[in-house]
Amino acid sequence: MRMQAAELFEQKIKPPEVARRLRVSPKSAYRWHQLWRDGDREALVSRGPSGSRCRLSPRCLEKLAAYLDEGPAAHDWVEDQVWTAARVAALIGRKFHISYSVSGATRLMHRLGFSPQVPARRVAERDETAVTVWKEATWEEVKEPGRPAEATSASRTRRASPAGRPKDAPGDGAAAPRS
Predict the structure, then answer these.
(1) C-alpha dist (Å) from residue 8 to 30, 66, 109, 135, 173
(2) Alpha-carbon span 137 to 76, nearest angstrom
(3) pLDDT value, residue 136
């Protein structure tokens, strides 16, 4: 895209028009224009993707994908079969002795075709029987009654036509139309 911008700059096309044609922000177009003016076309050659390099080798990435395919239980997470980003970061630390943040592990999972899952959060001491009894017995007593369906209203954002309004309706002839 930068090389397309260089071609347009060589044709004396201004940065705002370059931004519009290439569908980039004007700020990017002005920055590219400045680079082009200072260093010609070669200044706009891409230097590759930005950001930090992956700290795992291609071979380690293959191993990580295999570990993820095995599932969490194979790696001592037996509570559920969910790969969270925190678990993947811990797994990378254990297996490869490399520290990854949770967000870094998330990006790495996406790169490998996995998505982090969010485990269901339940209290370990939760008594399902007691919860069911409470819902059936107590909840009906304490919940507040809601409005009946016919008590609710909905209206369009357009004004109704005066022709469809009854003659004794509020606002009928009460005020002159605004100009």
Answers:
(1) 13, 47, 39, 68, 62
(2) 40
(3) 81
